[in-house]
Amino acid sequence: MKEKDQNSSGPVKEITLNDVCREIRDGQDAIQACAVLDLQSGLVLGVSHKLSGFNDAYVEAIAAAAVDLFRGPTVNAVEHLLGGHFGKKVENAINELQVTTNDGFTFLSVVPEKRNALFLMATDKSITLGLGWTLLRANLNKISPLCP
């Protein structure tokens, strides 16, 4: 997506998923991190966080864990069992998850128009679960156009 200042004749700035993640993160004090992940490869497509000491290794480990929650081998095995039990194919059935830790909440959703993209939003506990889900879902439309 390209953005151009209407009063400028300068170059067009390409908006990235990192930019959108930063905008979302900065939009609410409780949001500590946002990321967009590729559910097929596990790659981080975009990320922004304000967690001191977090480096690429932490971000990649969290991405791998998130992808496993949605598309990992155990999840695939359960979907296969359910499909056999109900007589229909069950695949990629998990669309949203919320994880609570001692320090915060993590909201995760498959991007509706881009089924191989996962949006992750981590917050502190000053936010309510309802507001967390509202913010995550309200921002999916900002993520979708930039996903492959």
Could you explain how this protein is built, in words?
With 148 residues, this protein is α+β, with helices and mostly antiparallel strands. It has one domain (2-146): Beta-Lactamase (2-Layer Sandwich), CATH 3.30.450. 37% of the residues lie in helices and 28% in strands. The protein is built from four helices and seven strands, in the order ββαββααβββα. The chain has a five-stranded antiparallel beta sheet, with helices on both faces. The termini are close together. The relative contact order is 0.18.
The CATH superfamily is known as: Dynein light chain 2a, cytoplasmic
Kindly report the CATH topology. Answer: Beta-Lactamase
Query: From the alpha-carbon coordinates, what is the Rg to the nearest angstrom?
Result: 17 Å
- For the record, the CATH architecture stands as 2-Layer Sandwich
Number-wise, the strands total: 7
The number of helical runs is: 4
Largest sheet composition:
5 strands, antiparallel
Distance between the termini: 12 Å
Spans where pLDDT lies below 50 across 5 or more residues: none
